[in-house]
């Protein structure tokens, strides 16, 4: 039997292995489907072959990563010393060095959301419990109290602020957006009118205007001697702004639900809130998760606007680095570092959104 099998394999010397055959099929289908698209593909490939080696040489091979000062930069490649020497400032801001373990724990808790989102066997109740308690745990760890030393929010800066605003903003904006969407579809005129007014008013104003209002105007209406933490004011603005856009996304999902499901729930004696919680909202949220994650990406990038009201996020640290006399003229490396940082975060979130879309497509088939 072994000899016969060997003869059969040798009898087809021109047979192409499955993997190379699929690769060739993909190349023909995606890169060279027509002569014009094939010419464009060849042009792009030639440009990549010309640009990528030069870019890698400037970024990595001829770059300077270690040195005492700007004099250590060779000038042939990128000078990453503004980043490597101020990396702790970029990550932790002005947070006390002895307490930075708390920031590391916050980063770990924030990153831990992604494995939980991918876990198929995890009950949604535990995921919701984790997400619901995450903002309060983050605030406790960063601000202190309850056995931890208190740290002023004026010492928050860098990536710490970006993660703080992005994660907490998303967790609170989603439930608020759900209630606004339900309010806009309510049959009670007062609730519906208030929801519509809020959503349209917030969506018609740039977020930078709301940040200025939170920073300057709100303080004028507070009693003398009373003040609200600027970081909390900025956080509230981002939550309110993002919730208005999420409300419209969720409302679109609610309008796409068949009326028969509402009528069947009513026939079974389900109340309005029971119908929403057990039947309608789980389906709506499952179908709108990809666009909601896209809005989270937008929120994450909008956190960079807090620099205009004096909150130093990672962009604020980058601007102070570029303005420092020791690093004048090295803005390309600093802002390229920012681009790489935001690209990695947004790319991971976008790939997760695509993963959810594929999972839902399989579920429908």
Write the layout of secondary structure elements.
Blueprint: H1 2-10, H2 18-30, H3 35-61, H4 81-84, H5 87-92, H6 100-111, H7 113-118, H8 124-143, H9 159-184, H10 189-203, H11 207-221, H12 230-255, H13 259-267, H14 272-302, H15 314-323, H16 331-364
Helix pairs in contact: 6-8, 8-9, 9-10, 9-12, 9-14, 10-12, 11-12, 12-14, 13-14, 14-16, 15-16
Main beta-sheet strand count, sense and barrel state = none
Query: What is the CATH C-level name of the largest domain?
Result: Mainly Alpha
| CATH 4th-level superfamily of the largest domain | MetI-like
Class of secondary structure makeup: mainly alpha
- The helix/strand series, from N terminus to C terminus, equals HHHHHHHHHHHHHHHH
Compute the number of helices.
16
Pick out the low-confidence regions: 1-16
Strand content range: under 5%
Domain unit count: 2
Oligomer: single chain
From the spread of the alpha carbons, the general shape counts as: globular
> Under the CATH scheme, which architecture of the largest domain would be assigned?
Orthogonal Bundle
What's the number of extended β-strand segments? 0
Report the mean per-residue pLDDT as an integer.
Answer: 84
CATH topology of the largest domain: MetI-like fold
Span of the ends, CA to CA: 42 Å
Percent range of helical residues: over 70%
């Amino acid at each position: 039997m072994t000899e016969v099998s060997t003869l059969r394999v040798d009898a087809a010397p021109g047979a192409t292995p499955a993997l190379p055959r699929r690769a060739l099929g993909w190349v023909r289908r995606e890169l060279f489907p027509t002569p014009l698209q094939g010419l464009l593909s060849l042009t792009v490939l030639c440009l990549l072959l010309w640009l990528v080696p030069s870019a890698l040489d400037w970024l990595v091979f001829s770059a300077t990563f270690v040195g005492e000062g700007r004099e250590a930069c060779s000038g042939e490649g990128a000078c990453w010393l503004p980043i490597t020497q101020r990396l702790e400032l970029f990550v932790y801001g002005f947070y006390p060095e002895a307490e930075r373990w708390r920031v590391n724990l916050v980063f770990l808790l924030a990153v831990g959301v992604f494995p939980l989102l991918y876990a198929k066997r995890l009950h949604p109740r535990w995921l919701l419990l984790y997400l619901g308690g995450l903002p309060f745990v983050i605030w406790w760890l960063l601000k202190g109290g309850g056995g931890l030393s208190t740290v002023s929010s004026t010492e928050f800066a860098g990536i710490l602020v970006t993660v703080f605003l992005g994660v907490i903003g998303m967790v609170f904006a989603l439930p608020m957006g759900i209630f606004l969407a339900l309010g806009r579809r309510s049959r009670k005129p007062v609730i519906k009118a208030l929801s519509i007014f809020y959503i349209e008013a917030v969506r018609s104003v740039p977020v930078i205007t709301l940040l200025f209002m939170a920073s300057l105007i709100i303080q004028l209406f507070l009693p003398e001697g009373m003040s609200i933490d600027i970081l909390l004011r900025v956080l509230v603005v981002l939550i309110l702004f993002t919730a208005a856009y999420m409300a419209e996304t969720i409302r679109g999902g609610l309008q796409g639900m068949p009326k028969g499901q509402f009528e069947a729930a009513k026939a079974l004696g389900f109340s309005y809130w029971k119908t929403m919680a057990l039947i309608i909202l789980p389906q709506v949220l499952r179908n709108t998760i990809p666009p909601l994650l896209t809005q989270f990406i937008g929120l994450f990038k909008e956190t960079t606007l807090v620099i205009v009201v004096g909150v130093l996020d990672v962009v604020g640290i980058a601007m102070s680095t570029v303005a420092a006399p020791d690093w004048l003229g090295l803005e390309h490396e600093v802002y390229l570092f920012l681009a790489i940082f935001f690209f990695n975060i947004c790319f991971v979130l976008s790939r997760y959104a695509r993963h959810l879309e594929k999972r839902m497509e399989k579920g429908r088939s």
